[in-house]
């Protein structure tokens, strides 16, 4: 058997931390996942075996190719929805990390005419349009809503297009980023934005960030991603 090339230890430990942070911040629960592209081989990505994110250790991290197949499973069972990750990495060379979640405040925007839009500077990354993936278009009227094969993953990736965040109707959402810290930030603040937008809509008509404001706010916040990351990490008891 070919000798296994080991993934970058720092990337692995950030990915484990990301799993725990996303659980601690209420983005994932027993379900949902976060992956990172292998920084030593862009044709592969790292994703935990099929367990709750809050319990992930480095031993649970598996490596996959861009067809969504495990490189060396060693008896570990992968997530059914790993094709979300493999197909987005195929279509988007700029994407280095992905979060898929069912974070609750976001879900209503996937099933109504209310668009999820940036309500404050922290969520400028949402941009002008948050695409909505309709699984019936790709999988017909009788799926179980899960992205369980390459075809559905590819359709989701096409809906995401060049965006940073996409809603999945009746299911959840996907956030993408240029690194683990950025995608964790985006997944957390998409949930915060969804809550604030609902609150604001009760009070009256909302003035959202315009395109320029959203782009500039995103650029500024991308420069300080380490600050919230260190705080979120410190809050996680399982990482101490
Ligand atoms: Zn899901």
Overview of this structure, please?
- It is built from 7 helices and 7 strands, in the order αβββαββααββααα.
- The mean pLDDT is 95.
- The chain is globular.
- The protein starts with 8 loop residues before the first helix and ends in a 5-residue tail after the last helix.
- Helix content is 37%, strand content 13%.
- A 7-stranded mixed sheet has the order 3-2-1-4-7-6-5, with helices on both faces.
- With 240 residues, the protein is an alpha+beta fold.
- Residues 81, 100, 102, 171-172 line the site of zinc ion.
Summarize the SSE layout with pairings.
Elements: H1 9-24, E1 33-37, E2 44-48, E3 61-65, H2 82-91, E4 97-101, E5 132-133, H3 135-139, H4 150-160, E6 165-168, E7 172-177, H5 180-203, H6 211-222, H7 226-235
Parallel strand pairs: 5-6
Antiparallel strand pairs: 1-2, 1-4, 2-3, 4-7, 6-7
Helix pairs in contact: 1-5, 2-4
The structure holds zinc ion (ZN).
Zinc ion binds at residues 81, 100, 102, 171-172.
